[in-house]
Amino acid sequence: MSKELEVCLSPKLFDEVKLDSPYTTVIIDIFRATTSIVAALGAGVKEIIPVLGLEEARKYKDKGYVVAAEREGIVPDFADIGNSAFDFFTPKVKGSSVAYSTTNGTKIVHMASDKSDDIVIASFLNLKAVAKYLAKQNQNILLFCAGYKNSVNLEDTLFAGALVEELLRYDFSIHCDSAWASHDLWQFAKSDLLAYIDKSSHRYRLRHLVSQELVEYTFKLNELDIVPVLNGNRIVLV
């Protein structure tokens, strides 16, 4: 029997998910949490500990952990680094356990953990690797988009569409309009992805904080053949 695939475009819609629990949840926060987590583990960070609040992040700092954090793109004064993918391309965090807190992405990791049998971290950087991993799991799949402050955003929706396209190569069935809508948006945008993503409201908000070089890296397809998963309270590579 084929497995079901559903897309949740905003945290506000999470309580309306139709899949029976448990299922595998794919966490999507392209600007910037999941892109940065994939980049960090690809660059040699040992593990990522997703934390909800800055006070919790500060407690990890007091315990000697490296802390990567931001709110609205701004790095708190106690954090060691921000949450940009490029922040992890430094020898000082290689092999480290990093406590990580962001505006949107870490929140939905915690939301999903009670209902999901498996939680996977996905980005354009590891698109095909995630699709192959999911195809091997004998479970229904939820693609969970962080959005921005409970609103739908373009970048997460586009990635969901790209992953839907990949998963259609395997034995998945779709009875979800959000999945088809994201898939169709991806078909429209993928021929010139960087030009399309320039419409994104989040891209506009981060324009003064995010270089064009980082944007181009964020939308690189299949740069890394890795799959990060949540193991207990820590994100590690499979």
* Alpha-beta content class: alpha/beta
User: Widest sheet: strand order?
Assistant: 6-2-7-1-8
Strand content: 15-25%
SSE arrangement, N to C: EEHEHEEHEHEHEHHHHEE
- Rg value: 17 Å
* Mean model confidence by pLDDT: 93
Secondary structure: helix percent:
25-40%
Distance between the termini: 26 Å
* Strand runs, count: 10
Apparent shape:
globular
- Report on the biggest sheet: 5 strands, parallel
Instruction: Return residue spans where pLDDT drops below 50 for at least 5 consecutive residues.
Output: none
- The number of helical segments is 9
Please specify the SSE layout and strand pairing.
Elements: E1 3-8, E2 23-28, H1 33-42, E3 47-50, H2 54-62, E4 66-69, E5 97-101, H3 105-113, E6 116-122, H4 127-136, E7 141-145, H5 154-167, E8 172-174, H6 177-189, H7 193-197, H8 201-205, H9 212-218, E9 228-231, E10 234-237
Short précis:
The protein is an alpha/beta fold. It has helices at residues 33-42, 54-62, 105-113, 127-136, 154-167, 177-189, 193-197, 201-205, 212-218, and strands spanning 3-8, 23-28, 47-50, 66-69, 97-101, 116-122, 141-145, 172-174, 228-231, 234-237. The chain has 9 helices and 10 strands.
